[in-house]
Write a structure and sequence with these properties.
The chain is built from one helix and seven strands, in the order H-E-E-E-E-E-E-E. Strands 1, 2, 3, 4, 5, 6 and 7 form a seven-stranded mixed beta sheet that branches. Strand 1 and strand 2 form a beta hairpin. It is globular and about 35 Å long.
Length: 132
């Protein structure tokens, strides 16, 4: 049986490595894929860290679940200014202030229950955090 030339063997090895590398590594943020709308940002996820994006004058996703003591991080990926302002529910009040493009705001939730929040600039832009 003929053997592979050294050049072809090297090419095959590089191709195999290239296919394996994207599957390696992980997310340092605890399972959200690093992007708004990632696995940790889905409703009902009940994780320690959740990410929410702001896109097209909406929170994405609108409703999330976080464990008690967990943190939600909002990132403004929209072309307009937004806020993240508590409207009701357990725990302390919070307000991000005006968030421009690429700004982030982080809030830790220690009290169990449902927390409603709104963008005070766009009152139809609402969301909820359920703390378990």
């Amino acid at each position: 049986m003929p053997s592979l030339s050294p050049r072809l063997a090297l090419l095959c090895s590089c191709a195999a490595l290239a296919l394996a590398v994207p599957a390696c590594g992980g997310d340092d943020e605890g399972g959200g894929g690093g992007e708004p709308g990632g696995a940790a940002a889905e409703s009902g996820s009940g994780t320690d860290a959740v990410k929410v994006g702001m896109e097209d004058i909406e929170y994405v996703p609108r409703d999330v679940t976080v464990k008690q003591g967990g943190t939600v991080t909002w990132t403004n990926s929209d072309s307009v200014t937004h806020t993240v302002t508590k409207e009701g529910g357990p725990g302390p009040e919070f307000d991000s202030g005006n968030m421009n493009v690429d700004d982030t705001f982080e809030q830790t939730f220690d009290a169990a229950g449902k927390v409603d929040y709104v963008c005070t600039i766009h009152p139809n832009q609402t969301g909820t955090v359920t703390v378990e």
